Amino acid sequence: MVETESMSHVYQHLANELMTHKAEAYVHIGDNRDDTLRYLSAFNGPDRDYAFVFADNEAILCVPDSFEAQAQREFVGDKIIELQRSERTSAVNRAFEVLDMVGNVRQILIPDSTTYAVYHELADSQYKIKTGSNLWPTRSIKTPNERKRIAAIERITESAMARAESILASATISENELIWKCKPLTTDRLRREINAHLARLGVTDANNTVVGSGPSCAELHYNGDDLIRPDRTVLIDIAPQDSGGYYGDMTRTFVPGILQEWEREVYAIVSEALKAGLERIAEGPGIKANSVHRRICDSIESHGYETGDVDVGLYHGTGHGIGTRLHEPPFFSGDRYLNKGNIVTIEPGLYDPSRGGVRLEDLVVITDDGYEKVVDYPLSPTPEVRVDSIMTRC
Hints:
394 residues; alpha+beta; Creatine Amidinohydrolase, Chain A, domain 1; Creatine Amidinohydrolase; 3-stranded antiparallel β-sheet; 33% helix
């Protein structure tokens, strides 16, 4: 097993799930879009079905032909079986062959996410099928290797943010436009520069890069094309994905040009709310996730702004777990307790759709005595040049 120490608790959890459900095997059929399958195997497979089987305390991966070498590099379990295309054997049938080899399997456990077609192929067999496996209690506690992966992609996220900030800082102001490389700077141009930078560093933007300017900052997932105007907020949210499916996540807001009174005030309020959320997390494992949300909301409301289902103010969640899903438990809207090893975002925001918005987001690891930031990117509304070779001359 490639990564026995860091994955042993995951497979132990599967063994416990089998005991709870009185099943002898766990079977998971999916493709590379299945984040749970990628989590269990660390295998970035193809866009056609393959199978993961856990039985008799062994983790077995059935991979399509031509993917065995990749699986040998990536799979964190015990055994790899190649599924030959010429055999015309489906991933489900290959899983059955594995179960036959294990023997004494009467009941199999499958995830709730199993597709309708796969479920009926599994059900049309000698095995009794049970659904309802729950990996989240274990999955939300990140292994040492997962922490390294998330830290690595967050450093790439940090680099992309530095690229974006430097472009804003080096752009020149001409009347009511920002000019960069002799052309007006728009949200789409800046987004494409960010995404190209991520690609150069070997990760995908996963269609998650948000760039808003002025009023479009108040649209939480803005992906349109808008002129970036001086003296207005520019909100940048970057959440790339690495080859193994793990995500980074960071948001900063800048004001190129002159920092106006409203922008200065709102930035200060959101900065204070971020600090309030971090202070709550600093109390250590065992606090409820929604208590962090409440602390952030209290901070914002103390300045006269509303939170919740409002038109102006804070109208989104203030944090979530991250891993092979961009948004995964623990969510700050729930009363789940935060535990050592959780990696979560803290992301307060404040918006006025007629003017703009500010959001600040940091990624932290819950530790024995509080938290550690995964990276520590500066907090400042005034953009600075942080990387070299940002060309501005025509």
